[in-house]
Amino acid sequence: MLIWIFKLFFKINGWKLKTEMIQQYKQSVTIASPHTSNWDAVYALAAFSLMGLRMRFTLKKEWFRFPFKKAMQNLGGIAIDRTPKTPGEKRLSMTQAMVKLFKENKDLHIMVTPEGTRSLRTEWKTGFYYTAKSAGVPILCGYLDYKNKVAGIGKVVFPSDNMEADLREIMNFYKNIQGKNPENFSTDLRYS
Question: Is residue 189 packed enough to be buried (19+ CB in 10 Å), middle (13-18) or exposed (0-12)?
C-alpha cells in the first residue's frame, strides 16, 4: 500500500525516478544529497521505497526511548550505542559502530547526509567514506534534483586506496544537482 502512496506522491508532484541497477548490492553507505530542506526526507523515503531499498539511518540510542522509539524504528532508524561494555574499554567511534552494524547485518543500506545540516556547508563530513572503506561496502550516490524533479541513485563508488580521487569523483557527480534551496548546497570544496 505504501508503495502506491509513494508512486502517487511522485506522480502528483511531477517527479521521476532514475537509478542505476542497484539491486545486486546487499549493503551500502548511501549518500542522500543535496540536503537543504525538511522535504528531502519525504522525497528520499519515497524514492528509496520505490527503488526497493529498505533504507536505514543511525541515531544516538537516546532517540529510541518512549515516546520516540516506535516511530524511529518504523522510519528505519537504528540505535547506535557507543558506550563501552566493560570498564576501561575504549568508546567506539561512530565509524566503528557503523562498521559493526555492517558485520552483523548482511542486508543493510545506511543513509547518510554528509553535509550534516540543511545550511550551507563547504566541507562534508567524511565518516561515510571511512565507514564504507572499513566495512568493504560501496557508496551509492543518492540524489534529489529539485530543478529537474528527478530522484535516484546516480553513481556507485567503491572506496579505493585513493580517498582524494574517490571524493573528487563523488563531488563531480553532485556538482550540477540542485537542492530545494540551492543557496544552501555546496559540494566539498576540498575535493571540487
Answer: exposed
CA pair distance 76, 78, nearest whole angstrom: 7
Report which of 31, 22, 60 is spatially closest to residue 124, judged by C-alpha positions: 31
Contact indicator for 180, 146 with CB cutoff of 8 Å: yes
> Cα Rg for the chain, rounded, in angstroms?
17
DSSP state of 63: G
- Distances in Å between the Cα of 12 and the Cα atoms of 49, 85, 89, 135 are 17, 49, 53, 39
Q: What is the pTM of this model?
A: 0.88
Residues contacting 140, CB < 8 A, separation 6+? 22, 25, 28, 29, 30, 31, 109, 153, 155, 156
**Tens digits of per-residue pLDDT, 42-90?**
888 888 888 888 888 787 777 778 887 887 777 777 888 777 778 888 8
Strands 55-60 and 108-112: parallel
Q: Where are the domains of the chain?
A: 24-184
- Phi/psi of residue 119, nearest 5 degrees: -85, 165
Other beta carbons within 10 Å of 45? 18
Measured at the alpha carbon of residue 147, what is the angle toward residues 143 and 152, in degrees to the nearest 5? 25
Helix pair 2-12, 39-50: axis angle to 10 deg: 120
Torsion-angle region of 52 (φ positive above 0: left; ψ -120 to 50: alpha; else: beta): left
